[in-house]
Amino acid sequence: MKSGFVALAGRPNAGKSTLINGLMQEKIAIVSSKPQTTRSEIRGILNTENAQIIFTDTPGIHKPNHRLDSRMNKQAASVIQGVDLIYLVVDGSVPYAKGDAYVLKMVEQTGLPVFLILNKVDKLSKEQILKNLQSWQKRFDFAEYFPISALKQDDFEDLIRTTEKYLPEGEAMYPTDMTTDESENFRIAEIIREKILLMAEEEVPHAAAVLVEEKTFKPGSCHIMAVILVEKQGQKGILIGKQGSMLKKIGTAARLELEELLGRKVYLDLFVRVEEEWRDRDRRITEYGYGITDE
User: Fold this and answer.
1) N or C: fewer beta carbons within 10 Å in the chain?
2) Which element (helix H / strand E) includes 173?
3) Which residues, at least 6 apart from 222, have a Cβ–Cβ distance to it below 8 Å?
4) Whole-angstrom Cα distance, residue 124 to residue 132?
């Protein structure tokens, strides 16, 4: 059988997380329209008749504004060095820019086979798709080209079958009933953070981190206590909302999805705490599970 790792690389908002969820036919990575939604390496483990493909979603590579951003970029660069194949996921609906050139150079330097995944083609005409593919073809000799719409849940059978051909022979590296190696607490925290991204505005979502502080299982139920960390008192006020309305809204949406994940009734208690400038403090970034260090 075939067994290997495939990294999804690209700029923020290219659709990497939507694609990995589509390939897995399961929600592995949280999704939002806001840049830098993905902050850490997330793996989806796909078992087919002939192969085990470990898809690795990476943080969108972007110009850093905080220490957190630098560590996310470093993690993305590290991930694509240690795989068998790279999907360069690009948003076909936006013009080629410096960010694309930066990511392209990064994947080119690996010497690995690279698939161009031209995403969001549902927004393009056939003529625009063709022009886009021709432009990318001039920039780099990609191993394969796939125009897709991850959002529309295209049939990924051809992409998966072609991917298998590029993977080495080998035994499965994970149990075949496993779909991700992320911890349960990480997935819980990410679901809560996704609701913050979807519901809060301005700088608040980017300044927020979520920690699961307590999780207690009882027959048929689970009680979760989680804290949302922000950097300023004003952000805390926005997240809580008038008479707790925003926090309640976030909690209700998260709880419904957590019940699906855990398969039981969930009681969710959310608290908000200010942790000034945590995105520029290595110890805190590590504690919250984001990025990799320079060590």
Assistant:
1) C
2) none
3) 215, 216, 258, 262, 264, 265, 266, 267
4) 10
Q: Residue 143's pLDDT is what?
A: 98
Quick check: helix, strand or coil at residue 140? coil
Specify which residues 9 forms β-bridges with.
Answer: 88
| Residue, of 70 and 217, whose pLDDT is higher | 217
Token duo for residue 91: 């948003």
**Domains of the chain with CATH codes:** 2-166 (3.40.50.300), 184-287 (3.30.300.20)
The model's pTM is 0.84
Residue where the block lists tokens 């060095």: 81
What tokens were used for 184? 């349960």
8 A C-beta contact, residue 208 and residue 200 = yes
Cα angle for residues 275, 281, 285 (degrees, 5° grid): 85
As a whole number of angstroms, the distance between CA 58 and CA 40 comes to 6
b/e map 214-235, b = 16+ CB within 10 Å: eeeeeeeebebebbbbbbeeeb
164, two tokens: 């298998």
**pLDDT tens sequence across 2-36:** 999 999 998 888 899 899 999 999 888 878 766 66
22-45 b/e (C-beta count within 10 Å ≥ 16 → b):
bbbeebbbbbbeeebbbbbbbbbb
Q: Which long-range contacts (CB under 8 A, 24 or more apart) does 231-238 make?
A: 231/207, 231/274, 231/275, 231/276, 231/277, 231/278, 231/279, 232/207, 232/274, 232/276, 233/274, 235/203, 235/204, 235/207, 235/208, 235/274, 236/272, 236/273, 236/274, 238/200, 238/201, 238/202, 238/204
Q: What is the pLDDT of residues 91-150, one digit of tens each?
A: 999 999 988 998 899 899 999 999 999 999 999 999 999 999 999 999 999 999 999 999
Residue 107 · residue 86 · CB < 8 Å = yes
Residue found under tokens 């905080």: 66
